[in-house]
């Protein structure tokens, strides 16, 4: 099994109604990626799409992919393409459930945002993931 040290939170930096297929198409046809960008994609409806098994390496954060699981919500920009945490209540809920599940699976993994890695200039995921999921170890241990 792959060693997982990071559960990384992202946003797609696209409109909230962007279809997962369009994002996958972009990775494959424009960026020419062999692997998806994220393992899990959370739609505005709260639906969670798994795009890759957790054993596969995804292209979430350059230099940190071998030991990471990547989770992204669709959205993260306003109408002018400026960073905005516009997660729907359903997305927040699904993200929480998914992160709890992953943290149980990989108790040693740190939960952090894309922007929390060194030298990252992006706003992704447009909120403080470390702070939001800080209480998780306690929650996970009590379940
Ligand atoms: Zn990102």
From TrEMBL:
Query: Is Hydrolase tagged as a keyword?
Result: yes
| The entry's keywords | Hydrolase
Write down the EC number: 3.5.1.28
Q: This protein's superkingdom?
A: Bacteria
Domain (N-acetylmuramoyl-L-alanine amidase): give its ranges. 2-125
MF GO annotations: N-acetylmuramoyl-L-alanine amidase activity
Pfam families linked to this entry = Amidase_2 (PF01510)
Name recorded for this polypeptide:
N-acetylmuramoyl-L-alanine amidase
Source organism? Chitinophaga filiformis (Myxococcus filiformis)
């Amino acid at each position: 099994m792959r060693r997982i040290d990071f559960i990384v939170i992202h946003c797609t930096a696209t409109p909230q109604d962007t279809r997962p297929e369009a994002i996958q198409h972009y990775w494959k046809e424009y960026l020419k990626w062999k692997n998806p960008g994220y393992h899990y994609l959370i739609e505005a409806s709260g639906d969670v799409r798994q795009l890759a098994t957790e054993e596969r390496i995804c292209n979430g954060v350059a230099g940190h992919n071998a030991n990471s699981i990547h989770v992204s919500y669709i959205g993260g920009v306003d109408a002018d393409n400026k960073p905005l945490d516009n997660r729907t209540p359903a997305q927040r809920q699904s993200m929480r459930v998914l992160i709890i599940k992953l943290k149980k699976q990989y108790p040693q993994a740190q939960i952090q945002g894309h922007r929390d890695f060194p030298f990252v200039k992006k706003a992704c995921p447009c909120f403080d993931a470390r702070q939001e999921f800080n209480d998780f170890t306690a929650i996970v241990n009590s379940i």
